[in-house]
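Students often ask why we bother predicting the structure of a whole assembly rather than each chain alone. The short answer is interfaces. A chain on its own may look different once its partners are present, and contacts between molecules only exist in the joint model. In this exercise we take three input lines together and write out one structure for the complete complex. Read the inputs first and try to guess which parts will touch.
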Amino acid sequence: MRNYIGNEITLMQYIFLIHGIQVGAGVLQLPRIMAEKVGMNGWIPLICGWLLSSAASLIIIQIMKKNPQSTLMDLMTTYFGKFIGKISSILLIIYFSIVSFTLIQKSILFIQVWLLPGIPSYIIMFLFSVPTYIIARNGIRIISRYAELVFFLMLWMPLFYIVALNQNHHWVHLLPLFKNIQQGLMATGSTIVSFLGFEVAFLFYPFLKEKKAASLGIIIANSLSLLVFLFVTISCFLFFSPDEITQYYEPTLSMLKVVEFRFIERMEIIFLAFYLFILSTTWIPYMYSMAFCTKWLFNKGNAKNYLLLSLIFFIVIMYFVVPTFPGNDLLSEFYEKIGVIFFYVFPVFLLIYSFIYYRIRGRITK
Amino acid sequence: MKIFKKWVKQNVNSSSKNIGDSEVKMISKSLSENLVNLYALFKDTPDLIVRHLEIKKGNKQAVLIYLSSLIDKDLIHEHILYPLINNDNDTEMHSQSVTIGKVESSSTWKDVELNIFQGKSILLIDGQTEVMILDTPGWPQRSIEDPQLETSLKGAHIGFGETSDRNIALIRRYIPNRQLKITEMVVGERSKSKVSILYLEDVANPELLQELKNRIEQIHVDFILNAGELEQFIEDSPYSPFPQFISTERPDAAASHIFQGRMIVMVDGASAVLVTPVTLISFFQNVDDYGLRLLSSNFIRMLRMVSFFIAILLPSLYISLISFNYELIPIKILLNIGKYRSEVPFPPFIEALIMEISLEMLREAGVRLPAPIGQTVGIVGAIVIGQAAVQAGIVSNMMIIVVSSTAIASFIIPNYDMSAAIRLLRFPMMIIASWFGIVGIVIGLMTIIGHIISLESLGTPYASPFAPIRFPEWKDTFVRFPLWKMTKRPSGARPIQVKRQRTNGFRRDEK
Amino acid sequence: MKWLIICSFLLFILTMLSSPVGRPLNLEDVSFALVIGVDLDDENNLIFYTTSPVFKPGAEQENKVFKVNAKSIRQSREEFDSRGTGLFSSSKAQVLLVGKKLLENPRWFSLIDVLYKDFKTTVNPRIVAIDGPISNIMNTVTENQPINSMAVKSIIDTSYLRGETVKVTLQELHRQMFDKGLTPSISSISTSNDIVLTGSTLLDEKGKYSIELNKLESCLLLMLQGKKLDYSLDIPILKQKENNSIQSNILSMNANNVKIKIKTQYINGKFNFSIDMSMYVMLTALPPSYESITSIPKLEGNINKELQLQFEHLIKKIQKRKIDPIGLGLYARAYQNNEYEKVKSDWGEALKKSDIKVSVNVKVKTMGAVK
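Now the answer. The structure tokens for the assembled complex follow.
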């Protein structure tokens, strides 16, 4: 069993780490997707998604509780043997690398089209790599500190929405409240991927100092993300008419275009630039997870070297393959499917297996 | 060839050895032999006084050795020579006749050498293998003055001197407590500087103390001139722009840090002391904050926080707004700016760089100039050169305002090291803003934040109480809560005794 | 490891220097199109106008006006680029002027689609329908200094504060066009003799010109939309017409704190809207022949009656033309969703058939400083 003590994170850092991963680039397009699928009752699938993701997170915590000092890969090794353990780490590496690549690419695309039109993607990738490396090379402690700090630094963002809403809000857009319940429930499939992010609990549960509060913590993280999603979705629904919201690709950003003050205009530029902080708390933990799993797999070397290598690798890829929104959407669909299978479906089986395993073990030792 | 080189090396090495280093170590009984050794050790030292005398009691021959530049002559004449030569009382111990406070004895030449250079006098008595080391320091010192870099309005107007004894005395005046302990170490092969660590034993964390001692013990250099050099040897990240020790010249500031559980490192010969472990916020706190009234000090504190951001961000914001994101500026201001920009040939980045570098040169030159010229040049530099530059069309009016506001903001930071760091950080921010606009500024901020939160000062987190967020400690960060509410010590220094006061005063009933 | 980092860093810097990093567009090379105008000329060709300030060293500022024939705003920008000194950018546009003739063509909205699609543009320019030649406005605007090239925007904004016209930005227009339960309304200015704000212009659901409203009717429309402003109303209170040139039947008042409640029902195959309005008024001018007010309730009753008549007049006007600038369709969709879904595609027709009742409740706050 490897030793993970000495690199500990507090409960609040754990909460904000998970919450930071969940709130990211998805928020920008979320209201449109909800409106397309469910119309003005788009808040229903959000709440259902929250319920499902909280359930999945709790299942994961239950699994991890049995062996408090192991990560997922250690667990698989214990239950199934070394070979399966290594396979699981390879799968995790592939998953995390696809996810982080997709997320960074999406952020780069947003920055490119809204803020920096002329600059090639690989340069922006390099720009992002600098703080990523500085923050992620020191391990999960610094990453969680960063997530915690960013949460408090960005608390002023909802104010912008309130200013925009002040100009133009129509509560009647939300009525009738329960028209499309069935469609809403069906659309939960899209929202559960927004809540993906809690899977890092599989890896970083051993680092948590107060393990007893892990379940509570993860529920709080999910609920915070739900609040953010609801706020954004409902603000957009209030602001845009139901017939026009599907016309906007990123209603969250387009809504802020109307915010103007006497001394500064075009607030959506400032908003998007600072939103980069929130986007960064999404991909930095994923990149570190990838490096962490790689280190676990090879059992030597430093996680930060693997991190550096993967960053350079991403830059090189982006030099040759220029990112586009449609391409990125394809990648997203792919990783969403894998994510749902890995982290919503698989933990259930793992939990059942762990019960059986310990029951059998108990019987053998008797 | 190789053998030849080796032989040459050996010879050179052996001839460069001092006689005193290896051969004769112990004091011998014979006075003349000792004198021969003495003169061999201290060649070419005209200020070494060797005073032969005859002790009245017992009629023994003795020699008093001291360096005349380092001792207090009155002490020597009246309290050593006079009693020894004249006193005829009944005691056998010569140490009783000498009316000096601190008397030690030793029998090695090494100690003799060490102590002579510390201003002590050595009494060699014929027939005894032990010498008496008498404490008679009296080297030139300056009087107690107001420290130049850290002036305060309401605090005390005393500053540390260059003698660690006096500095310790000043601190003891603030902390007349048995728990104030001093650990002494010696650093530097040739300089043999005395390094003292002061701390409160029941408050400071023993692990941190041990860590500090380890780090200092592992320094092997020729000499340490001042505390700044010591700092660079024991810091966690010497390559970081941010200082990880506070260097202060004020005893009251040092005492208040000790009370918070920090440790003071004092170097003999330096007038500044180092405080460790520190957090980012402690660089923005000043002794005055606590002496002024609540509302005024909070106003000044917030002004400092704002000026921190202005000093780093203002030039880069200007550059990015003008060259990249001009849509952010409302139309009226934009038209004005457009008018200015059409008169200036340089792109905003070059303009900003010219002005910033000129300002830095002016500032550095101002430090070197003597006072009367310095004042005139300051005014001349600021007004005339700035105005002339605008008229010549090199820079625009807006730029002058930006640059001067930045300079003023960076001088508000109380600690010199921190303001130097901030001035330095401006330049990479300007570069990245000129390439990438506001996104560049955000990335720059991200990098700075990432660096600060991973920085450690003696193993404790530098950005506490922001990085591991601890809400109760925000009582002394952006604003200062009333003194009677700050009941716990900040955890940045990991003190082992946390509670420092009760909610007290006649306001006990008001919570 | 260190060498790898250093080498890749250097290689990277080299590639970066060859890219467009570090060479942004200079401020003085950009021409900001502050006013954009679109109209049809006599031969039904599209003309585009724009005015932009010219940055010149020295105190003189200049505004240049450009007029080109083009097929779309995008193409007009190319034409402007070839005529002006800078690169045209509409990210700081203050107003969008549309000629009345152009409004009669229902396709005009597709012309400005580009202003929505481009990320860098702003959605805050006010839309104004111009009655008369646009060139009148453009030329007047250039005589004055930059502050007044935003004259049109100021006219709209300040009149809106009194409720004399609607204020519609591009964002708001987009919402009004796309929402099936609402038809657009924009401000209107006439330029035939002098630049004068005339009120509002209403469009039908396709965007085609429908009818004009004068200032009083615009005021009533804004009240029905529920906008909280300081309205100044002048309503005729007495019926008789005198021969005196000084009209004596106008009651002027300032109305604020307007609250509106709309109840939606579906009875007998048609929609039933009952609108309850309450407001506080301050009297500012009484007709000279009005007897000294005996009782406040009587005065309030008179005002209520008169306002109700005015509202009914306005509503009949819009019902006749099958348009819905008030947005009653939103209420229908919210409260009577099933019925609304059936008639969604032709809401104007359903509105024409529906019953709309307005009841006004006025409270007099003060009668002014003197009797």
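Check your guess against this: The CA atoms of residues 374 and 452 of chain B lie 36 Å apart.
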